[in-house]
């Protein structure tokens, strides 16, 4: 018994040494991407609370669209991982080209939605000043959507092969580009008018085109990508194509959309409560998103490792990768939750000097700390299931957790007297704790069933 446990621990340790180096560059890339939103929040907040609220409300629309597009194209990663693991790397480039056909209609729809988001703000009775900033912010950022789609497509091709450093380097390089863009557009430099929060949208669009250009040059010029045949139009893909991408990607995109839409609706529901409440919620959400990059990056590594193992028909290794990733995610989440509880006031102070906003934000950060473990576990389980190309049942589980349980509970706690005095923003964050915990349990059970079913089938 002791010998068996030692052997299991040794295997977990070996797999962790594979996952962590793979996740680290992904984390750097994700943090760089999230830093763009952090910079927008901080620089807009230095202008006024209204500009900060405008960017926050605009972000509540941009976020779900961003994640849906990311989710659909994320299907490229597990398919490429399985092809690469099976020694069929030459099919990965033509597959990624098929992703352009999948992305094109989504890009057009996204631009139309962003250009006409003002209708949503009027319907939700958002403060007119906040709505004006949000509307123009989204119109500006919409011009970066085509670049974002192509960047995601090529990044997922690279990461599916286990090549994660390029997206890290490009992400880090985009930070000074975004800061410079914000400085010019927000404060009116180089002869341009001062745009306030609206300037964040133009700076973000500029950064997205920069990242896209760098990724295209990387795939084109770096020899390690030659074997993908991405730019070889005469090379056709194998059995995997646009239908397979859609079949796997749409549920992934919808799952992320369901989760993101909860945060979007929360921001919109809170907007009538005033700029202070919205700003406090935005601070907590932005910080939460930054911390979430850690389990999300490990989740991406889990998908890659599971995909490679499945491609090689190593189902035991796939289970080990899943189990190790979930243990790492949960352990790290315990640490980040503890740090959040200890330094909540200092964290809020990074974003604003307004004592009222800080006071509200600290209470929300305490609640955020309580759901970090559940959040880390559920994103890891969902990522492992993607490695198995399982996305439709997890979508249903996410819908139940967030829309059937989380959102109605949050609305009743925050804005009604059903449970007593309305709790405002705290009510929604309490419901997030419950919804994410339900998702963690359901997705964990699904992963156990799928992984053991694959093992039994292989036997």
Would you identify the regions where 5 or more consecutive residues have pLDDT less than 50?
none
Q: Fraction of residues in helices?
A: over 70%
How many whole angstroms does the radius of gyration measure? 22 Å
Q: Roughly how many Å apart are the termini? A: 25 Å
Please, how many domains?
A: 1
Q: Report the major sheet.
A: none
Number of helices: 16
Structural class: mainly alpha
Which descriptor suits the 3D outline?
globular
Strand content: under 5%
Total beta strand runs: 0
Features:
mainly alpha; 459 residues; single chain; 16 helices; 83% helix
Write a structural description.
- With 459 residues, the chain is mainly α.
- The chain has one domain (8-458).
- The chain is built from 16 helices and no strands.
- The chain has helices at 2-45, 49-73, 76-85, 92-115, 118-123, 128-141, 145-160, 165-187, 198-221, 242-270, 275-311, 315-342, 344-351, 355-387, 392-415, 425-458.
Task: Write a brief caption for the model.
The protein has 459 residues and is mainly α. Helix content is 83%, strand content 0%.
SSE order and pairing:
Blueprint lengths: L1 H44 L3 H25 L2 H10 L6 H24 L2 H6 L4 H14 L3 H16 L4 H23 L10 H24 L20 H29 L4 H37 L3 H28 L1 H8 L3 H33 L4 H24 L9 H34 L1
């Amino acid at each position: 018994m002791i010998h068996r446990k030692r052997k299991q621990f040794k295997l977990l340790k070996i797999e962790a040494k594979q996952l962590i180096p793979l996740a680290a560059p992904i984390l750097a890339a994700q943090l760089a991407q999230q830093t763009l939103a952090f910079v927008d929040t901080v620089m807009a907040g230095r202008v006024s609370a209204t500009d900060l609220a405008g960017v926050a409300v605009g972000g509540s629309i941009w976020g779900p669209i961003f994640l849906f597009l990311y989710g659909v194209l994320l299907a490229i990663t597990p398919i490429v991982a399985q092809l690469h693991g099976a020694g069929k790397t030459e099919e990965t480039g033509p597959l990624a080209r098929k992703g352009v056909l999948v992305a094109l209609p989504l890009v057009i729809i996204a631009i139309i939605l962003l250009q006409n988001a003002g209708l949503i703000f009027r319907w939700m009775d958002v403060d007119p000043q906040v709505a004006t900033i949000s509307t123009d912010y989204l119109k500006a950022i919409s011009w970066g959507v085509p670049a974002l789609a192509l960047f995601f497509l090529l990044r997922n091709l690279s990461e599916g092969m286990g090549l994660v450093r390029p997206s890290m380097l490009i992400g880090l390089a985009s930070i000074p580009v975004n800061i410079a863009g914000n400085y010019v557009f927000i404060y009116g430099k180089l002869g341009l008018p001062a745009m306030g929060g609206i300037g964040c949208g133009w700076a973000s669009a500029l950064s997205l085109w920069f990242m896209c250009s760098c990724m295209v040059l990387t795939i084109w010029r770096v020899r390690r990508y030659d074997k993908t045949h991405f730019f070889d139009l005469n090379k056709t893909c194998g059995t995997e194509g646009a239908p397979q991408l859609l079949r796997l990607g749409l549920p992934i995109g919808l799952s992320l959309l369901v989760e993101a839409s909860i945060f979007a609706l929360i921001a919109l529901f809170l907007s009538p409560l005033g700029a202070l409440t919205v700003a406090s919620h935005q601070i907590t959400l932005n910080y939460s998103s930054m911390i979430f990059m850690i389990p999300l990056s490990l989740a991406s590594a889990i998908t890659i490792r599971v995909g490679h193992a499945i491609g090689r028909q190593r189902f035991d290794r796939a289970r080990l990768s899943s189990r190790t990733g979930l243990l790492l995610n949960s352990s790290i989440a315990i640490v980040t939750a503890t740090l959040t509880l200890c330094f909540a006031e200092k964290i809020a102070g990074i974003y604003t000097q307004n004592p009222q906003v800080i006071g509200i934000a600290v209470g929300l950060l305490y609640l955020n700390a309580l759901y970090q473990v559940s959040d880390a576990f559920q994103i890891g389980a969902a990522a492992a299931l993607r490695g198995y190309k399982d996305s439709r049942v997890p979508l249903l589980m996410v819908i139940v957790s967030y829309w059937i349980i989380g959102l109605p509970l949050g609305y009743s706690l925050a804005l009604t007297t059903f449970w007593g005095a309305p709790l405002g923003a705290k009510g929604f964050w309490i419901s997030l704790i419950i919804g994410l915990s339900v998702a963690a349990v359901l997705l964990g059970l699904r992963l156990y069933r799928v992984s053991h079913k694959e093992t039994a089938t292989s036997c």
